[in-house]
Amino acid sequence: MIRRHTAALLGLLAVAAAAAGVTLHLGTPAAARAPLFDTPEATYGPAAAVVAVLLLWRRPANRPAWLLLGSGLAAAGYVAGRALAAHPGVPAALAGAGGWLARWTWAPAYLIVVGLLPLLWPDGRPPSPRWRPAVALTAALLVTVTVGAALDPAVAGGRANPLGMPALGAVVPALRVAFAVLTPLVVLLAVAALVVRFRRAGAAQRRQIAWFGYAVALTAAVSFAGPWQLRLAVAVAVPVAVGVAVTRHRLYDIDALVSRTLLGVVVLAVLALVYAAAAGWAGALVTGGSRVPGFLAAVAVALVFAPVRDRARRAVNRLLFGARADPYRLLTGIADRLQGAPAPAAALRVLAAETAAGLRLPGVAVDVVGADGRTVSAAAGSPVGPDGVRLPLVWLGETIGELRAAPRRGTDRLDLADDAVLRELARQGAAVAYAVRLAAELQHSRERLVGAREEERRRLRRDLHDGLGPQLSAVVMTLDAAAAVAGRGHAERAAGLVAQARDQAGAAVQDVRRVVRGLRPPALDELGLVDAIRTTGPAAAPGGPAVTVEADALPELPAAVEVAAYHVVQEAVTNAVRHAAPGAVTVRLTGAAGELLVEVTDDGAGLPADRADGVGLRSLRDRAAELGGELTVGPAPGGGTRVAARLPLPDQAGWPDDH
């Protein structure tokens, strides 16, 4: 509580001193009035004191706030001192004290803001222990210049200063040289400390540094180039920025503030040139004390203001935020570049790169998740961390991936304008992501089909080479032996060898039939698809669940479609019997709209929560995809499992007629 009340008393003293100084100054006759408002202490002092007191009342240990309070108190003392020194009605002794006060209070007011406060901003500590010498140098310069100015005998025309302290005499010129040499060094160290801290800081602290740096830069620029009215107004920027950065920096967008500042500077500069040109041109036409030149210049400025402001606003927004101010142009440009991409994966990289470049974002990533869980990613710029925005990529009601974007440097989130443009890009990019997903799944399916084909060839080779080949060789050898025995007159023995050859040939025939059944179930050719399902496989197994086969009048089916449908039914029924213990299984075959619909439902236990497709189901998906169809597995209405396959027929496997 003591520190809070001390801060409040010092703040009240600063406000009172500044108010008294301004009041006294305004009461001075114009002829004797000193240019008090040439420097910004009159507004900076009370503003800094008030902000510092508010911060210290909440956090009494805040070192930057104490520094700000000291700077504001010194600035207020400078205002009061100059007013006392310039007012003709003030006694000579009091005027001398005022001049002495104004002579040295400028030093802490100035050096704290440009040197010491940046070194300790925003947590009251230097960026690292290596910066402690810089803090010591700045503090030493501050104390030395302040004390030297206070003890300078020039304050009282060579007499002792009002405090009666000994003058420094010849030391003062040396202090002035030191100030002129060391002050630029101190300012450079302060700027370097802010830059180093900004590069190492997190998003929240970066915003605090950005607020402070922006205010200091704005104040410095106006101090050199602006009129005194503008300097007085802008002087409150530093304390206000300190207050915002410490308390509510998350509620304000520093990027938007910078963009509006740049916009104002550009517009003012252009309008000033227009005014000067118009006034000069009109003045050359009209001479004398006429007001026509000024009137014509004002009209020219009014005519130019709106288009200049719009063009400047667009230019500044493009500089800071990219093309987000014109989403249509951004989306159109990205669409044109996507059309020129050589492949879907390249289009995904184009989407990430163009989004990052178009919105001036440090990093953008696009992730596409396939049906098998595999992820295809493309990124541009720096990696997107967990604090980045994540937008789903939704196509045909299914989330197939996400668009991730990193916020701009110095911020911890994207503003509403960026978010709106990104959401539109996510909607447009979902089509690209879906194409990438289909391409990846097609490639994966092709790899599996090639692998399955090679495995099938290997099996056939093994069956023919290791089974059928030796059997036929044995038949030939047995018949040769029978012929040799018969030639020697052993008819009975020859007959036995012929019978043995016949058995071997029969076994070879069975192997051939087994191989043929592996290529295409013979029941399909003998019975047709519907009866083959009813009489073979688990549907005909004794003791199993009741399997009902329902079929409309099916069109003539190609061989590949018949085989795929047969295997879908057999695999689905086998899985139901093996894993779900159903009481009944229903198989429905429907031919409509140029495709065969195969549906197998059961009333069993249903799908487990951690279900993953096995080899059989993956093979069925590949078969369906090879024909241009699809296979889905999900819960059945009323419980159980439903396996459905859509198999297009070749004569209508392309686009529907209305396309």
From TrEMBL:
InterPro entries: HATPase_C_sf, HATPase_dom, His_kinase_dom, Sensor_HK_TwoCompSys, Sig_transdc_His_kin-like_C, Sig_transdc_His_kin_sub3_dim/P. The chain crosses the membrane at residues 42-58, 65-84, 104-121, 133-151, 171-196, 208-226, 232-251, 263-286, 292-308. It is found in: Cytoplasm. GO terms for molecular function: 4 iron, 4 sulfur cluster binding; ATP binding; metal ion binding; phosphorelay sensor kinase activity; protein dimerization activity. Its main location: cytoplasm. Residues 1-19 form the signal peptide. One of its GO terms (cellular component) is cytoplasm. Residues 567-651 form the Histidine kinase domain. Residues 637-659 are annotated as: Disordered. Gene3D superfamilies: 1.20.5.1930, Histidine kinase-like ATPase, C-terminal domain. Keywords: 4Fe-4S, ATP-binding, Cytoplasm, Iron, Iron-sulfur, Kinase, Membrane, Metal-binding, Nucleotide-binding, Phosphoprotein, Signal, Transferase, Transmembrane, Transmembrane helix, Two-component regulatory system. Its EC number is 2.7.13.3. Its cofactor is [4Fe-4S] cluster. It catalyses: ATP + protein L-histidine = ADP + protein N-phospho-L-histidine. Pfam families: HATPase_c (PF02518), HisKA_3 (PF07730). Member of the two-component regulatory system NreB/NreC involved in the control of dissimilatory nitrate/nitrite reduction in response to oxygen. NreB functions as a direct oxygen sensor histidine kinase which is autophosphorylated, in the absence of oxygen, probably at the conserved histidine residue, and transfers its phosphate group probably to a conserved aspartate residue of NreC. NreB/NreC activates the expression of the nitrate (narGHJI) and nitrite (nir) reductase operons, as well as the putative nitrate transporter gene narT. This is Oxygen sensor histidine kinase NreB. It comes from Spirilliplanes yamanashiensis.
